[in-house]
């Protein structure tokens, strides 16, 4: 199917994500740039812009003179990153309840409505972008630049894992319900509840990724299962 979207590199990135998730492009395999250009009806420029964006998000790895390959997700790395991200988002939620402005809350509420509309239409890439903007808005509302810096350093590495967590309709529905409760807690400025809900939300994402077999098991960390370690701990 040819792409007719105005933002060609974003549209290409969406299609490549879909192909990776569907198993058309397998972990460790090279991205067939020429074939994808023909398939999408685009030139090399927007495709390569898309690959750069996907590399920043952890979907592909760019190698000089060899092109792009689909990255493999390592279970230990993903668990470590989710553990830290859960702590960061939990803290951000607590701070946001104290510091968020009314206009920022209204913006998050509008993003939530847009996200739900994409859910109803089955538009996962568009849903995911709204979802990410909501999480980033909560981080911003915490008004802690160092927290934002740490969040940004991890966010790109977890983009692919967070996207794949909603590949089943049941998981996707559960995520939307969790976001409803997150918005309610933020609106009520209930710091304890929001902190706990955000930590649980990240735990459920990690569980979904591991259940979907999108990660490679390793011998690191002694084989310890940490998918439940940080639930409700903040």
From TrEMBL:
The keyword Transit peptide does not apply. InterPro entries: GntR_C, TF_FadR/GntR_C, Tscrpt_reg_HTH_GntR, WH-like_DNA-bd_sf, WH_DNA-bd_sf. The keyword Methyltransferase does not apply. Pfam families: FCD, GntR. Residues 6-73 form the HTH gntR-type domain. Keywords: DNA-binding, Transcription, Transcription regulation. One of its GO terms (molecular function) is DNA-binding transcription factor activity. SUPFAM superfamilies: GntR ligand-binding domain-like (SSF48008), Winged helix' DNA-binding domain (SSF46785). This is GntR family transcriptional regulator.
